[in-house]
Amino acid sequence: MKRASTLVALIALGIGAIISIQPTTVHAQSANAADGMQISPVIAELNVDPGKTYIIPITITNVTGSDLTFNVIVNDFASKDETGTPSIDLDSLMPSTASIQSWVTPISPFNILARQPQTIEAELVVPSNAKPGGHYGVIRFSGRPTGIDTTGVSLSASAGTLVLVRVSGDVQESLDLLEFYTSQDDTQSSLFARGPIKFVTRFQNEGNVHVKPVGQIEVRDMFNNTVDTLAINETKGNILPDSIRRFDTVLEKEWMFGRYTADIAVSYGTAGQAIVRTIAFWVIPWRLIIGIVIAIATIVFILITVMKRYNKYIVNKALHGKDGTKKKSKK
Questions:
Q1: d(C-alpha 271, C-alpha 265), whole Å
Q2: Parallel/antiparallel/unpaired status of strands 258-268 and 187-188
Q3: Fold that domain 32-167 belongs to in CATH
Q4: What is the dihedral of CA 283, 288, 289, 292, to 10 degrees?
Q5: pLDDT digits 0-9 by tens, 291-322
Q6: In the CATH hierarchy, which top-level class contains the domain 175-284?
Q7: Which of 24, 59, 123, 236 lies at a CB distance of 3.0 to 4.6 Å from 105, suitable for a disulfide?
Q8: Domain(s) of CATH 2.60.40.10: residues in the chain
Q9: What is the spatial distance between Cα 165 and Cα 55, in angstroms, rounded to a whole number?
Q10: Which residue has the higher pLDDT, 87 or 276?
Q11: Is the Cβ–Cβ distance between 250 and 231 less than 8 Å?
């Protein structure tokens, strides 16, 4: 009975080892603001016709305890990188062909009392020969204490409103999906041991006007069940002409197994142009699998060892009897 109890205990220990090897869970402004001011809106988007005039209302709030005088200047801007961060050309000595610098009527300096808002109306005069497509600029405000001229050293930082203008006519909307892939720890791959998994999409605007792609990624498992649906460009950011923008979307699930597919469907433009693509990836929790194999091998080894000892015990018992003396064979 003691030998049998030992066998049961060893088997229970091996089963406990398998159970214990389970996947573990690792827990890991609507207004543009600068020193002394807040600007709203951050972005102004206009659809315009050549030869017409438009008004852009902009609210500036003096958030300081002193009266401020504001100067206004219009600069060009472009995409700084693939995140969509704007790069403002502060020199603007040679405006681009898509510039609106000359379209904005000059705005004289104005005063705003302490902790008070004021709305100004920026006038946009579109030339009759304006080229169809996108035109861009930033109406920038810089404040200084009232009574100090522009050569003083007390100038504050500046803030502004990005203006995206779409001139009617022969507008070309063309967006290309350069890349759609899965990655983890900033490394592109299609094989993973666990989640979360990042989906990277890179779009290139090949048209002459800004576009705003929106859509989703639908992730399905090997049984065609929907695992999750992920939104792309939830903030509805624009992609400027001749630029690339990247969007990262994360599938937060950690415990996954098998082959998965990801279907991307994105629409853009006034005609609802669509981009679709499918990729596949695998999630194989090899650490868990190796652990289970080791546990099973351990149990098999224990069972074989115990059975050998038990069989040896039975043979010895049959040969020597209970008192340990060797039995004599009958003649």
A1: 15
A2: unpaired
A3: Immunoglobulin-like (2.60.40)
A4: -160
A5: 777 888 788 888 888 888 877 777 777 776 65
A6: mainly beta
A7: 123
A8: 32-167
A9: 12
A10: 276
A11: no
